[in-house]
Amino acid sequence: MQFIRALALAIPAFIAASARADGVFEDVKFDEACRRAAAAKKLVFIDFYTDWCGPCKVMDKTTFVDERVVAALRARTIPIKVDAEADAALARRFNVDGYPMMLLVRPDGTEAGRIAGFQPADDFLDALDAAISGKDAETRAREAVAAGGGTDAMARLRLGQVLAAKGRHGDALAEFLWCFDAGATRDPAFMSLRRGVLLDAIAALGREYGPALAEISRRRDALEGDILAGRADFAAVLDYSAIHRALQQTDRTLATFDKLPDNSAAKVMLFADLVDALLAARRYADVVRMADPAAGLSRKIEDFHRTEADPRIRSDSARQMLLTTMREDIRRYAARMTLALAGAGRLDDARKLIADALAFDGGEEMRREIRDYLDGTDVDGAEDLRRSLLP
Which positions ≥6 away from 301 have C-beta within 8 Å? Predict the structure, then answer.
């Protein structure tokens, strides 16, 4: 670690600032990055990301603009970003199945190390130094687990990701299942990762290793029984929906939703994950009835502003991650509810919702999100709404 930090400080500040302004990542393909790395006697650093990965976006805005990180990456690597869905072949080649996932690759294309999961700048520099110095990913992951006394869920998730990438499926599953069953009880802050990154990792493992799918399906079946019997609490319903989201089995969540009475708290909770499925089925009135779009948007915006000013959140990176996720959720909510209101014949309410959404966030991302939901639909008035969103 001392070498990386000393190196970062030794490089003149104007170089780091310039690299940050231009972006630390080079706009080249993997093969060209390998050629440049060979010529410069460096490693290739690959940041695998997806458009839907919230932690990836937070790292872009925090870790990868930290001047120490910029200096270290520029000095020791040829850094590139790779959209894992757009270049699925490269992601498969390196067994990438969770995000953020960062690899160090030798010029000959062989892996030299990897860094898994969200990393604040200080943690990233530690991991980068260890990886470049030759300490392999599993050794680093096991040291982190030991340092946490075996109960640090994030450390065990990272170990599971490393083991899965090595093809040690049974060992990886053991780590993942511990994280799912016990991780959140040890660390409540792990809950969002548990229902997102962790379940995605289990689902990816299940595509290659049947027992992973069997284990998570067994847990899903038990949750479903509790929901239909009225025994499930809030957390159990969210777990059930998250499992289907990871397994891409939303149709099963919808079937359970339709079995529940309208006054069921579980039905209200399941609804959040079913909006797109209901819209696809043209059940617009059901969406409007369950959501109360105007009130829902107002609550989400109020929550955003409360979080923005919450003094209890002391970590800037944690606040930024949370606000980024909340802003994306507001955009998506506004887009879905605009279509639902239009489909239910409530065009004036749809226009008002658009105005409220743009008052919160008038940028192109909000406009594009709403336009994308309206594109291609034959709902009366949708085209007029779409045109109203043009700059």
Answer: 330, 356, 360
